[in-house]
Design brief:
Number of strands: 2
Helix content: 40-55%
Shape: globular
Strand order of the largest sheet: 1-2
Largest sheet: 2 strands, parallel
Number of helices: 4
């Protein structure tokens, strides 16, 4: 579905404040997923440069945000705890409606999601690289962006 853009992802876009080539929108995955143009995963944990450690930290943070948000959403909307037995189009609409409802309730309640995040990298056990060269190029572009003045976080080096 990702390869043929069956999900109808937005077109590539330039990262803020950069002259990098237009970057694709990506999903954040763990070691179960192969690296690809639209699927990012961590670098293998052996002998990582500072830049790659920062990339792994930033990707881990992104996964944590997503997992936390989905956990909160699934606990409110129990249908997300099990396989969704609907036609694909109906399931997509149900998940989109659930996300919109979740965001509405969170905004209405004035919840600050940043307060729930830790700034420390959890230990990761990664082995090998699975994926394609284009995915690796996208991963390298994000790595360079996270180390650039436009994409860095002031505390990221202290967190790795």
């Amino acid at each position: 579905m990702l390869i043929n853009n069956a999900l109808d992802l937005p077109g590539n876009t330039t990262l803020p404040g950069t002259i990098y080539p237009a970057m694709p929108f990506v999903f954040v995955g763990d070691e179960a997923f192969a690296l690809g143009e639209h699927m990012m995963r961590l670098y293998s944990s052996r002998g990582l440069s500072i830049a790659r450690r920062v990339f792994n930290y930033r990707l881990t943070r992104a996964r944590r945000v997503m997992e936390c948000a989905f956990g909160i959403l699934a606990n409110k909307l129990r249908f997300l705890h099990s396989p969704i037995h609907l036609k694909l189009e109906t399931a997509i609409s149900a998940v989109k409606a659930a996300c919109a409802l979740h965001n509405f309730v969170r905004e209405r309640d004035g919840y600050n999601f940043e307060d729930s995040l830790s700034h420390f990298l959890e230990s990761m056990n990664q082995s090998g690289v699975r994926g394609n060269r284009h995915g690796a190029a996208v991963q390298d572009h994000f790595t360079a962006y996270f180390m650039s003045p436009q994409g860095e976080l002031p505390w990221q080096l202290e967190a790795i």
